[in-house]
Please model this.
Amino acid sequence: MVKNYSGPAIYEGMMDALRIPGVYFHLYGKAETRPYRKMGHITVTDENLEAAKTTAKQLLKSVRVIA
Model:
């Protein structure tokens, strides 16, 4: 997230992340970003807890709300 920015929301890495089984995006429908504004969240499911944690850590590095 770019701090102190207000403007249109651009989601980086979302399309690639959606190709991963068990990854679900929940966007809150906010068209504009503001400093520290929560735009949504990602849910990761997997039968194996460690696999879910690994996927979540990868998503932290690859998915961003940018402008």
The chain has one domain: 7-66. Residues 7-66 form one domain. The chain has a mean pLDDT of 91.
